[in-house]
Amino acid sequence: MRPSKRDELIRKALEIFYREGFHAAGMDLLAAETGISKTTMFKHFRSKDELILAVLRLRDENFRNWLFRRMEQAGSPRAQLLAMFDALGEWFAEVSYRSCMFIKAASEYPEPGNPIHAQAAEHKRLLFLHLEQIASSAGATEPALLARMLLQLKEGAIVTAHLGHEADPAADAKAAAVVLLERFCPS
Amino acid sequence: MRPSKRDELIRKALEIFYREGFHAAGMDLLAAETGISKTTMFKHFRSKDELILAVLRLRDENFRNWLFRRMEQAGSPRAQLLAMFDALGEWFAEVSYRSCMFIKAASEYPEPGNPIHAQAAEHKRLLFLHLEQIASSAGATEPALLARMLLQLKEGAIVTAHLGHEADPAADAKAAAVVLLERFCPS
DNA sequence: TCTAATATATACAGATCAGTTCAATTAGGA
DNA sequence: TCCTAATTGAACTGATCTGTATATATTAGA
Predict the structure, then answer these.
(1) Residue–nucleotide distance: B41 CA to D2 C1' (Å)
(2) Fewest CB atoms within 10 Å of the CB: A21, A67, B64, B166?
(3) How would you write the pLDDT of chain A (187 residues) with one tens digit per residue?
């Protein structure tokens, strides 16, 4: 029960950073919106950047758990790969949808050497490793290449859902994925 | 010769915003790095947001001119569509590459109603219209769908080139585009 | 009830934020 | 040369930034 305040802070900070942006959301705003005093925040985290890193760790865990579980429900490896885009479609439909937290983090901390940037990159790497394994299970001729292609469609759909005018970016990405699977994943 | 200071400011502000981010780069930093006084900046632009809008207008013009010219050199419509990814590859290889200015703008101004966000979205729309027309010239069965798919690959490659570990995102995207063209663009 | 950890409010430091004011300076065109 | 517009430096406003200091209040276990 003791670390609950810390967890509560991370959880609420995640929502606020996602909604407002990292630079735009100051520590005073976090204190006001979370009801957690600034003193407590800086007792749990030495700096704002460390809080952001903790937020990104939570987001990575939540997002991968959510996505991979949705994919598992689909059954065959091939169906799992396509199910990713169905999950994305549900995500995009949320009214609070505002793109990917890690793309946003990389946008605000553009230097690759920055720890926040590096942690965002690590999330993408973990996604790749998982997709590569599923592509391999699906009997893909080039699992790594197929995984990279599907992930590019995913990132493109995420950006387009936030920035574009298109009706259903997830459906477009899925349709493209079907074609790629036909080519690289003989069934 | 009179509006040169204004143009110079926009041009230099573009580089600084692209490198540092919009929130991270303050007006004082702009004044220090451009050598243009803050007084002059606020005489040309009522606010920082208006300067950002001017920067995005310039970036839109520059980027589309550059990309479309590279594509035109390729010859046939089908080759033009693929040439987009070759151009992306050259862009990604620049040491100063730090993702897409419009994705970054949308990340820092996440509300769709924000004028900066809207202007970034407009850039993506103009890209779509151009690609749709080329896809149509190429005899695509569904030009709009093909254009949306190729653009998703483009955005995905841009994000991956900034945030990923992959060796050559542009080549991956091009390989996927080849497959999509075979399917949607009978030659 | 005592103890020790944890959280609180409040005020503050020092820097930086966007934006303004104003007098002095520079430059171009007639 | 003269006139006008553009630009400048520098100080300034008031708000906000990250982070700290201090003293008080809350909480939970022994």
Answers:
(1) 28
(2) B64
(3) 356 889 999 999 999 999 999 999 999 999 999 999 999 999 999 999 999 999 999 999 999 999 999 999 999 999 999 999 999 999 999 999 999 999 999 999 999 999 999 999 999 999 999 999 999 999 999 999 999 999 999 999 999 999 988 789 999 999 999 999 999 988 7
Interface of A with B in 57-86 (CB under 8 A): none
Report, in this order, helix, strand and coil percent for chain A, each rounded to 5.
Answer: 75, 0, 25
The answer to whether B63 CB is within 7 Å of strand C is no
0.90 exceeded by pTM: yes
> Buried b vs exposed e over A73-98: b needs ≥16 C-beta within 10 Å?
ebeebbebbbbbbbbbbebbeeeeeb
Q: What is the 3-state secondary structure of B109-178? A: CCCCCCHHHHHHHHHHHHHHHHHHHHHHHCCCCCHHHHHHHHHHHHHHHHHHHHHCCCCCHHHHHHHHHH
Q: Is there a contact between A45 and A71 (Cβ–Cβ < 8 Å)? A: no
What residue spans of A94-142 are helical by DSSP H? 101-108, 115-137
B110 residue type, one letter: P
Work out whether the CA dihedral A180, B151, B107, B27 comes out positive or negative: positive
Q: What per-residue confidence (pLDDT) applies to A1? A: 38
In which residue are the tokens 């001729």 written? A141
Read out DSSP for A64-80?
A: HHHHHHHHHTT-SHHHH
B39 CA to D8 C1' in angstroms comes to: 8
Q: Across the interface, do B176 and A176 touch by the CB < 8 Å criterion?
A: yes
| Residue type for position A56 | L
Confidence band for B186, pLDDT divided at 50, 70 and 90: confident
pLDDT tens-place string over residues B46-100: 999 999 999 999 999 999 999 999 999 999 999 999 999 999 999 999 999 999 9
The reply to whether B43 touches chain A by the CB within 8 Å rule is no
CA atoms within 13 A on the CB side of B143: 14
**For residue B181, with 0-12 CB atoms within 10 Å meaning exposed, 13-18 middle and 19 or more buried, which class applies?**
buried
Q: Tell whether B110 lies on the interface with A, counting CB pairs under 8 A.
A: yes
Joined together, the tokens standing for residue A106 give: 């990389």
CB of B38 under 7 A from strand C? yes
